[in-house]
C-alpha cells in the first residue's frame, strides 16, 4: 500500500496505489472531465526592488520551486492511469539540473492583458488548463493596475487525488519563503537520492500513519449507517439551468470579504453562541437556499439539506505527520437536517435549530474517531457512483461546502522585506451542475467564495445566493 521503489536507473521512481478519498477524486477526474482538479492561489506584492524586474522574479520563482522539491517531492508526482484503478508515481531527480528541468516544464506564465485580474487568471487556469493536468503545475501572471509595486498572482494547480488545499498551501508557503531568502549557486541543495530516505518525505496513505487507536467495528458501522442515511435523499440545492452533463461552460467565482471589524464581531458572536464558524456558515447556506428556492410539496419526501464534508484529518495522524503531511488528508463526514426545519416560518428559530443539528452531527463524527477507518468505504462508493453517472449521462447535482480556516496559520502574510501576500484563495474546477462554497480567514478578514460553471448557473443566480448568505450571516448578530 505504501510507496515502493519501482525504478532505480536514472534517478529513483516511487509509486503507490491510490487510497481512501483519492479513489473518488481519481474516478471523478476521469469520468467528469477533470472535475476534481483544484487551485490554491496567492496574490503577492513585490516589496524588494531586486525582484521588481520581471526576469528576476521569474528566475527567483523557478529557483524556489526547484529548492522546494527537496522538501516536498510530491510536487514532482503524477497520477498514473493503470489497469488496477490508478497509482501515484514520483520520480526523484538525480541532480539539481534535472529537477530544474522538470519544474521548468510545469511552470507557466500568463502574460498580462488589459483589465487582467485574479478572477480572469483563475478562470483561465481552471477552465483551460486544469482538466489536462495529471501532475501539480504552477501558474503565475503579473497583475496590471494593482499599484506602483509589481504584483503577481501565483497558483498551484493539482489533481485532487494528489493533494488538498492545506497541503498545497504548505508547499506555497515554502516557495514564498525561499523566494524571499534569495538565490545563489552556493545555496543549491546537493541532490543525492541515494543518501535520502524519500519515504520520510513522500506522504503515505493515512491508514499507515494515523495515531494508533483501537476503533471498534461497531463505531465504524455507526458511521457508515449515518453516511448512508444522509446520502439516501437528494440535497436541496439551487436548481441549475440544466442537469445534463456537458463539457461546455467556464468555471467562475463570486467572492465576498467582510471587513476586519465585521469579521471580528461575527466570530465573537459565533463563539458566544457556542458554535463554530463552519457550523454557522453551513446553516446560513441552507437557509439561503430555501429562501431563494422554496421547497415544493414533493421535495419534502425526496430531498433534505445535506452537506458531504471533506474533513481535514491531520489531527488524527501520528506526531511525525500531523503538521507536515502534504498529500491528500481528507476524510468523509456528513451533516444534514430535514427540509421542514430549514424552511420553517421563523428564520431565526430555523437557523438555531440547524446549528444545533450540525453541531450534534459533527460531534458524532469527532467522537467516533473513525474517519480514517471509514473513508475507504465511502470513497469507493462515491467513485463507483461517479462511473455509473457518467455511463448513464446523469449530472452530479450538488452543493458543497469547505472551510479552510485561518489561512494565516499556513501562509504568512509577510516574507521578510521581499514579498507581501495580499490575499489567498482556493478554487475547484466545476464541470457538473454543482456549486462549491469555500470560506477562509486571512489578515483578519472572513471571505466567502462560490465557484460555479456558467453553463449550469447564471452569474445573477450565484450573486443573489452569496448576497443572501451574507445577509443571513449578519443576522446572526441579532440572535
TrEMBL record:
The superkingdom of the source organism is: Eukaryota
Q: Please report the name of this protein according to its UniProt entry.
A: CoA-dependent acyltransferase
Amino acid at each position: 500500500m505504501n510507496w515502493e521503489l519501482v525504478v532505480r536507473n536514472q534517478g529513483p521512481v516511487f509509486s503507490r496505489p491510490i487510497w481512501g478519498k483519492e479513489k473518488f477524486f481519481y474516478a471523478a477526474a476521469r469520468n467528469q472531465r477533470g472535475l476534481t482538479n483544484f487551485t490554491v492561489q496567492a496574490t503577492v506584492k513585490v516589496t524588494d526592488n531586486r525582484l521588481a524586474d520581471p526576469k528576476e522574479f521569474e528566475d527567483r520563482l523557478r529557483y524556489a520551486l526547484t529548492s522546494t522539491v527537496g522538501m516536498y517531492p510530491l510536487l514532482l508526482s503524477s497520477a498514473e492511469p493503470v489497469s488496477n484503478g490508478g497509482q501515484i508515481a514520483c520520480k526523484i531527480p538525480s541532480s539539481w539540473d534535472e529537477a530544474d528541468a522538470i519544474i521548468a516544464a510545469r511552470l507557466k506564465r500568463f502574460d498580462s492583458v488589459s483589465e487582467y485580474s485574479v478572477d480572469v487568471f483563475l478562470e483561465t487556469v481552471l477552465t483551460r488548463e486544469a482538466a489536462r493536468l495529471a501532475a501539480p503545475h504552477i501558474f503565475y501572471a503579473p497583475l496590471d493596475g494593482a499599484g506602483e509595486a509589481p504584483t503577481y498572482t501565483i497558483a498551484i494547480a493539482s489533481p485532487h487525488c494528489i493533494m488538498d488545499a492545506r497541503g498545497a498551501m504548505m508547499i506555497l508557503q515554502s516557495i514564498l519563503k525561499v523566494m524571499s531568502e534569495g538565490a545563489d549557486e552556493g545555496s543549491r541543495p546537493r541532490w543525492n537520492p541515494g543518501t535520502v530516505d524519500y519515504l520520510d518525505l513522500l506522504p503515505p496513505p493515512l491508514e499507515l500513519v494515523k495515531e494508533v487507536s483501537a476503533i471498534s467495528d461497531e463505531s465504524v458501522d455507526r458511521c457508515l449507517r449515518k453516511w448512508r442515511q444522509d446520502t439516501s435523499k437528494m440535497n436541496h440545492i439551487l436548481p441549475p439551468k440544466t442537469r445534463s452533463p456537458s463539457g461546455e461552460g467556464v468555471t467562475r467565482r463570486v467572492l465576498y470579504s467582510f471587513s476586519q471589524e465585521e469579521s471580528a464581531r461575527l466570530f465573537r458572536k459565533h463563539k458566544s453562541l457556542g458554535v463554530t464558524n463552519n457550523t454557522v456558515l453551513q446553516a446560513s447556506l441552507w437557509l439561503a437556499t430555501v429562501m431563494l428556492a422554496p421547497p415544493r410539496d414533493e421535495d419534502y419526501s425526496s430531498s433534505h439539506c445535506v452537506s458531504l464534508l471533506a474533513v481535514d484529518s491531520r489531527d488524527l495522524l501520528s506526531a511525525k505527520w500531523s503538521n507536515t503531511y502534504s498529500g491528500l488528508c481528507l476524510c468523509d463526514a456528513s451533516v444534514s437536517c430535514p427540509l421542514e426545519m430549514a424552511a420553517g416560518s421563523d428564520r431565526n428559530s430555523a437557523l438555531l435549530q440547524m446549528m444545533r443539528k450540525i453541531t450534534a452531527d459533527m460531534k458524532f463524527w469527532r467522537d467516533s474517531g473513525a474517519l480514517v477507518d471509514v473513508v475507504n468505504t465511502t470513497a469507493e462508493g462515491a467513485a463507483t457512483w461517479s462511473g455509473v453517472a457518467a455511463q448513464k449521462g446523469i449530472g452530479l447535482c450538488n452543493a458543497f461546502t469547505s472551510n479552510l480556516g485561518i489561512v494565516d496559520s499556513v501562509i504568512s502574510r509577510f516574507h521578510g522585506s521581499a514579498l507581501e501576500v495580499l490575499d489567498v484563495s482556493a478554487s475547484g474546477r466545476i464541470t457538473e451542475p454543482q456549486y462549491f462554497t469555500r470560506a477562509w480567514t486571512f489578515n483578519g478578514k472572513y471571505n466567502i467564495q462560490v465557484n460555479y460553471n456558467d453553463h449550469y448557473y447564471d452569474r445573477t443566480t450565484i450573486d443573489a445566493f452569496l448576497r443572501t448568505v451574507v445577509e443571513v450571516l449578519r443576522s446572526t448578530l441579532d440572535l
